[in-house]
Amino acid sequence: MADDLPAPDLRIEGGTILTLDAASEPIETGFVDILGGRITAAGPVSDRPATSARRVIDASGSVVLPGLVDAHTHLFQVAARGLGDGLGLAEWLRTHMIPLALALRRTEMVALTELAALHALRSGTVAAVNHHYGGFREPEDAVAVAGAMERVGLAGAVARMMVGERTAAADAFGLPAANFGYTNAQEIEFTAEAMRAKADGPVAVWPGPANVAYCSEEILLAGADLARQYGVRWHTHAAEDAFAVEVTRRHQDGRRTLAVLEDLGVLDSDATLAHAVWLDDAEIELAATRLPHLVHNPLSNAYLGSGTMRLTELRSRGVRLAAGSDGCAVAGQDMFTVARFGALLQRVAATDASVISVGDMIQLIAGGGARALGTGTGTIAPGERADLIVVNTSSLHHEPVNDPLATAGWFATGLDVSTVVVGGTPVLDEGSITTVDEAEVRARGLAAARAVMARL
Ligand SMILES: [Zn+2]
Question: For residue 105, how far is its CA from the centre of ligand 1 (angstroms)?
Fold first, then answer.
């Protein structure tokens, strides 16, 4: 190797590198070089360039993975951890989430977003799609929430929830009138305003129509249109449970969820659709043809009794898949747990252990998530964005490490993550958060949760 290569900003070395490239084997005692926010080299330490790095992180006893992406979450819901256990989706929303969202003040949603973003980062999540609906949903709210993610160091997007005028389908959901404070025109203008304000920031604002089941066609069309206009993706809830599909069929001339989007001309790779649990064969065919990004939320779907996504069929058809936690209030936001539980759920559904490995799920979370965000392929390779994590696998609950990827998938948790690099910057640096005062963020977040709960 030439000695005149520019010095990397950061070198992570000594651990087992899991590049998550399609065919690659784990690189034992490897290194990753990072310069200007990008990965410049990776391989065995024996091939390391002679140039010394400005900073070296020793990853001995650990695995180094592409960063995990939580492609569907609602960060403010951290305030409602543990509430509504045993309720189904519609009742859980009506009883807990919508009253909480409507009661939030901007300072509180910012404090809660920082708290949940901190937890996400500490658990190995480098980026999230934060589908946000707290407070009055003024443009400034989405901008403030994006700013909160940026301060803590979590990348990704705020999908500003768009509701618009109350529809007959929204009545069927039993959503309160207070949820529909704006005309469609206001909703669209507010979204555009927030998108313009964050056009250059590390955390963008996306259009986030609330739900295919009860948003008007005007709102769905406008969401997709704004995304095209600003060169970003758009996000919505789609076919989450049987009730949502039934409401769609009743109010959309018997059509199902993806058929509605197809007929509107918005089912394409700009669409990131959370859940897609209740798809029939024709919708799977549509997904395989139009290639939207479908975001699987296995923990949430199980917690709320919503159903099991036809994930293995979708994978075999080449459908684009990512995964999400769906927020802290539905069993947590540790994406290692999502990986493990997602694999188990598919095996139970198929009564066949061969349908998916936990490594496949980790790949779907990192790679599928990066693709859904449009930030790369979620692998460790030269030229890729430097989003990666170091996971300690030298504890009692890991050893012996026979298969590093299987060990990370089945036995690691967010608590084992020691370093998180986002866009080349160590945000969690060998155990310490570098961006914010962690004790202050926790104190402010807990105070905000207590304050809003006291008003409910
Ligand atoms: Zn959701």
Answer: 20
